Amino acid sequence: xxxxxxxWERLHPRLVIVGASWFLGPxxxxxxSAVLAGGLSVSAAITLAGFLxxxxxxxxxxxxxxxxxxxxxxxxxxxxxxxxxxxxxxATSVERIRSVDVTANPVHRLFGLATVVIGTGExxxxxxxxxxxxxxxxxxxxxxxxxxxxxxRAPDAHGDEATLARMDWAWLKYGPLTxxxxxxxxxxxxxxxxxxxxxxLKPYELGFVKGVYYFFADMSPWxxxxxxxxxxxxxxxxxxxxLFVESWWNFRLSREDEASFRVQRGLLxxxxxxxxxxxxxxxxxxEPLALRMVGAARTNAIATGLGTHEDRSTSPxxxxxxxxxxxxxxxxVAEVLGLPxxxxxxxxxxxHPRVALRRRLFRVLQLVLPPVAxxxxxxxxxxxxxxxxxxxxxxxxxxxxxxxxxxxxxxLGHGLSGDFLVVRxxxxxxxxxxxxxDGVVAWEVSQSPFQRWSGLVTLTAAVAAGRNAYRVRDxxxxxxxxxxxxxxxxxxxxxxxxxxxxxxxxxxxxxxxTPQTARS
Length: 520
What we know:
alpha+beta; PH-domain like; 4 domains; seven-stranded antiparallel beta sheet; six-stranded antiparallel beta sheet; 15 helices; 20 strands; globular; Putative membrane protein; transmembrane
């Protein structure tokens, strides 16, 4: 073997079948549509022919991809070469590798394949294939071997892993407590409607749909509306529970050694993510309103290289726990950050000025009064029913808005806990973020016109992880600047010196122009 080809490996040839197997979905949908319509319509046949042409194109692309992709792992570097016409060569030092993400969707698992994504600490979104280091189409055994080699683990190291958390099926009750449990029903029905229409079917003409329509049309609105709401909520709860099971089946969070931790989970799509502790810049505990009412929360790591959108509480990549009791969330954060207690719990929250509450109450008036006024005006013109509707809806929305405004104000907070600065805000989803103080690379100080009038400021901590920016909202100017300087000493010094010089010069100018009163 020549030096130019020594050590190079290819993806598995079954990748071609996996890449082209997406055609099975449209084929099954066409078959179902043909059964519902009593035969294959002309539009369905044309659509099917289009899918078949796309299938042939995709199969050709996957063959070329398999032929042209090679990878090599040495003691010092990882190299990936791909492309036939436009060649792309990517390489990174083994010393830069901070995580290895091994995933396998149902089709990959059917053919015994997996995808290995190599994280180097660089912020790269999953859609950026040009910069993303990924091997899509290696066998499961190869994926495990790559993970061991890239992270320099002993082959049997996983046998000594310390388990930090395992799946507890008592957490299943938290699955439906999300807004997506209801919104998902509408999304699914809308997608099904559009899909049937694309095959020339009119869903509202199907016998089953007509039967459902007439069933509710014959009922009193006082009975039909609650029943319909109950059905939608029930379907949403079932869907959310099924999604919870699929996402968190066989969940395990473990500490491989003092330098890394590993998250494993998934029923249909399995995922194994190993993260180097040195790239972790903090953690986020998110309490959506429904979960907060039952004492539960979501937990996510804030780490470099996970992508700019991976700090979301619903992110599958940065999640450390499924929705779980808040006490366990604090425990896991402490373990991952290597602390005796989580910074979100071991912190003295500094209160925000009362003017921040007035700002939130004013927002409620801005949102509620204009639509209520429009409906009320239409009622004066058209019918008194709209007037009564405007008063009732306005009162209900105003009371709910005031409650949410007070809740949002109570949730505001910031403070310092050892090597971490902690920020909390939100009402529909209260987020408490702990960031390493040495990970903050810059502060942004901003003021809206209302904030300037009220003496408030918003501080934004820039971090090379997560969403890259975390805000301390509506804090008093002096308190906010003092907090930023204490959190990261010296970072705001030029700004504070400039501000101090400006204040002194303003005072001097004021003194020069103030008339002096002589006393006898």
